[in-house]
Write a structure and sequence with these properties.
ProC C-terminal domain-like fold; 2 domains; eight-stranded mixed beta sheet; binds NADPH dihydro-nicotinamide-adenine-dinucleotide phosphate; pyrroline-5-carboxylate reductase activity; EC 1.5.1.2; Pyrroline-5-carboxylate reductase
Amino acid sequence: MMTKTNLQQKTIAFIGSGSMAEAIFSGLLRHELVKPANVLGTVKTSADKQERLKKQYGIQVKTDNKEAVKAADVVVLAVKPKDAEAVIQSFAEELTKDKLVISVLAGISLNNLEAFAGKEVPVVRSMPNTSAHVGASTTAICAGSYATDEDLDLAESLFQVVGSVHTISEEDIDSFTAIAGSGPAYFYYFLEAMEQMAAEAGFPPEEAKNIIAHTIEGAAYRYLDSDKKPHELYQEVLSPNGVTEAAFTHLEKHRVQKHFLEAMKEASRRSGSIGD
Ligand SMILES: NC(=O)C1=CN([C@@H]2O[C@H](COP(=O)(O)OP(=O)(O)OC[C@H]3O[C@@H](n4cnc5c(N)ncnc54)[C@H](OP(=O)(O)O)[C@@H]3O)[C@@H](O)[C@H]2O)C=CC1
Ligand SMILES: O=C(O)[C@@H]1CCC=N1
């Protein structure tokens, strides 16, 4: 049985301190699993962000990736996928076999990440989602050729702080990304329409927010708790010739579910081709 890594002993550098990196390090700091002094972030240019992050979290924020990587035990790569090659190459000199690189980049394969590093370094590819901000990400991890079980454990420990973790095979990461990485956006898209409906009906915004959030929360709990299929769960709601049936008649006429499935397949295809 392997022991879980003590993150408190590690210095973690976030290369790219955008929305995904902030979601992760804010969770680590909130749970006191790392000390602010042991967290480094880098940005490209944003001086405003640099100041805000320093002030808000007490972490160091720099623009020098190489310096940050040099000081780190763990490097969390969180720039945009298009910047992966140039950014990794800019700090590759500082990478060693004892320095774990965890990538959160969509679409950049372990093979590519290792090739950009140009040497045998441990890499874990991950796919978190923005619910990490509230400790509720559903994250996938998969190990590169030089990553050990301890490296994978460390990545798991890190992501467990901000939610649940699934160790998967890399061949499944595109569909995982389409379902869980992009997933929060789909729900926000639907709840935007629910907000509009509530606003048109005259509900005060705060009350509407509560009604909508708890409706989604309740449906998620019921889905988790029940052995019933989604089809059975929504049939429970649909009274013959009733209210929900009126909505479903419209949804089915426009084949919304079919289009939604196709949309996720597009997302998965995009995840598979970003690195090309
Ligand atoms: N957003 C999401 O829901 C998810 C995103 N991801 C992945 O996370 C990664 C980051 O996405 P996200 O956080 O949304 O993006 P953001 O645009 O919010 O953040 C990107 C960050 O990278 C910084 N940056 C850009 N170039 C460099 C550079 N050369 N050196 C150092 N830092 C640099 C930017 O700095 P500056 O602030 O100065 O511009 C910014 O802080 C992507 O690869 C994405 O695929 C994965 C799962 C979910
Ligand atoms: O849209 C993207 O490319 C990233 C990956 C999953 C969520 N956001």
